[in-house]
């Protein structure tokens, strides 16, 4: 949580806020649009504003002065003094929302079309007009005509010295930082931002932020989807700021998320140095609802944690290196990892090679979807898919697992989900038959779990009491599809669809129409997530809250 210190100054109460600033970059085109954008940013929850002057339609010093004056008048709050986290240095005498003036040249990934002399004049004008900070590119200091470099001597505590690479991680980041430290002199902040071409590129940024006490104030960002975690973990690691956008279409760099998402999904206001880190590993991962579900659960029970999406490339070595990287950095305090497609076998292999404990049925299934990192650094592997499915079945039918013994069950599909269901149902004593379009796959899966098999043509004569769709058929957007004909359904059946989007698939609707009991995939999703949640936190999962959040995010 952000700390607040309150002082009495000249008999007036003054609030001092210590924070990592949630910063919105505004594309400054003209006065009116800038004021409107700033109001929207502050209304959304921004804590600092960056004015990107390189977007100006008419880049004139007088206009820059007018814009900064107008913005400061909007946000003046005399009783608030914003201070930096490490040395309590005052950065604003009056404004509650400090301003950064940036005019990024094209050679550093910006949009300014004018001359270097014109660009520098805009920045100098911004400083004189009252902007608390000005962003100066490290490469700019190597230019003899760089007039703004004088700010390092005159007003260094207003300078953010920056370096950007939109292609990838610098070849020698340590040398870059050494150069920056040497050149920044009295500059307030060092900033390094580069494109993360894979998630392993994030570790250098996290290490950089971890060295804050040695380096002074630092902004470190890995851009792009793979670098998203550096934006959220900036607060845990005490970065000077992180960038967000008001709307997805308004970002000024790849991978920015919105203020609303940062606050509402990733619990920005609750993060601190003690925050426990959890997340889901997958590829792709941007569609995952798990962060919203788990983070809402953390909030509900008051657990100091954050759950992030981790985009990890498919090969085994990429998965191994990423998990190794997390474990090597004990100060990240990573507690648990959910694992989804295509990494469940990679997770199994990881536990087999480097883990402490593998849940027996997870080994039999050949798939791990949950890794728990113990305080001693060891890893345990579990599969919560089958448990989530069994709980969904028994809860809906109002029975115990022991009541499943002897129940005839049909599983449609022979992939990973079918495998978990076959393991769980046979372990519970069900008489399982695997139905699949490719009969050979059904044969192989049935052989492993000592059950029966048939092609899809056998569905017409099945005698199952429980029917499970373990395929993706019927999932959004193909909502008009069903894995089996309606004529195969009977009133005395229980029909379970593991697809959770939509919550009521065509298959379930058809089953409900004839009076059969239905079990939706949302129940399975929430149950397996709740089991993971309890493994990660050691506390009972708020299943009702988690389901409500999932339903809301599927609308």
Q: How much is the average pLDDT? A: 89
Q: What's the number of structural domains?
A: 3
CATH fold label of the largest domain = TIM Barrel
Strand neighbour order, sheet with most strands: 10-9-8-7-6-4-3-11
- Under the CATH scheme, the architecture of the largest domain is Alpha-Beta Barrel
Tell me the Rg in angstroms: 28 Å
Q: Note poorly predicted spans.
A: 1-18, 78-94
Proportion of residues in β-strands: 15-25%
CATH class of the largest domain: Alpha Beta
What overall form do the CA principal axes indicate?
elongated
Most strands sheet: 8 strands, parallel
Q: Helical residue percent? A: 25-40%
Q: What would you give as the CATH superfamily of the largest domain?
A: Aldolase class I
User: How many alpha or pi helices?
Assistant: 19
How would you describe what is shown here?
With 555 residues, the protein is an alpha/beta fold. The chain has three domains: 3-273, Aldolase class I (TIM Barrel), CATH 3.20.20; 279-383, Rossmann fold, CATH 3.40.50.10860; 386-519, Rossmann fold, CATH 3.40.50.720. The protein is built from 19 helices and 23 strands. The strands form four sheets. The protein has an eight-stranded parallel beta sheet with strand order 10-9-8-7-6-4-3-11. Strands 13-12-14-16-17-15 form a six-stranded mixed beta sheet, with helices on both faces.
